[in-house]
Amino acid sequence: MPTFATQSISKPYILHLYRNLLRTSRTFTSYNFRQYAFRRARDSFHAHASETDPNKIAELVKKAEQELLVMKRQGLLNSMYSTEHLVVEDSILAKKKARMAKAAGVA
Q1: 69-106 burial string, b = 16+ CB within 10 Å, else e?
Q2: Are 41 and 94 in contact (CB under 8 A)?
Q3: Rounded to an integer, what distance in angstroms lies between the CA atom of residue 54 and that of residue 74?
Q4: In this structure, are residues 33 and 74 in contact, taking their beta carbons and an 8 Å threshold?
Q5: In whole angstroms, what is the distance from residue 9 CA to residue 12 CA?
Q6: Tens digits of per-residue pLDDT, 19-52?
Q7: Are 17 and 64 in contact (CB under 8 A)?
Q8: Which family does this protein fall into (predicted)?
Q9: What pLDDT, on the 0 to 100 scale, is given for residue 89?
């Protein structure tokens, strides 16, 4: 039988937590950290998407909340000590600019 703590966890809250993790992963200035944080959040949630045990869900949500706090703190530290962009990032930015220019020309 679910406890009071597990009853308060709703699907919209879990989705909100997931989106916050993905959003926070974008705060890293380092490409490698940013991609790692994004993949870790996405893979973790997808791996447990079919979980039905309320106690296990509560445990996973608590762990995700803790990871969100760590990710926010690490993202802040990472932004304080940024480095030059990698070649990979430059090509990604160039592709985005080209798409935006093409979209602006079409509109």
Answers
A1: eebeeebeebeeeeeeeeeeeeeeeeeeeeeeeeeeee
A2: no
A3: 30
A4: yes
A5: 9
A6: 999 999 999 988 889 999 999 999 999 999 999 9
A7: yes
A8: Belongs to the complex I LYR family.
A9: 67
Do 89 and 31 contact (CB within 8 A), yes or no? Answer: yes
State the DSSP H helix or E strand holding residue 4, giving kind and residue range, or none if neither: helix 4-7
Contacts of 26 (CB under 8 A, 6+ apart): 34, 38
DSSP per position, 52-86: --HHHHHHHHHHHHHHHHHHHHHHHHHHHT--PPP
| Mean pLDDT, residues 68-86 | 85
Query: Is 1 in a helix, a strand, or coil?
Result: coil
The token pair that represents 95 in the structure block: 């592709």
User: Residue ranges per domain, the chain?
Assistant: 4-106
Number of neighbours of residue 32 by Cβ within 10 angstroms: 10
Q: For residue 63, give the nearest of 45, 50, 46 by alpha carbon.
A: 45
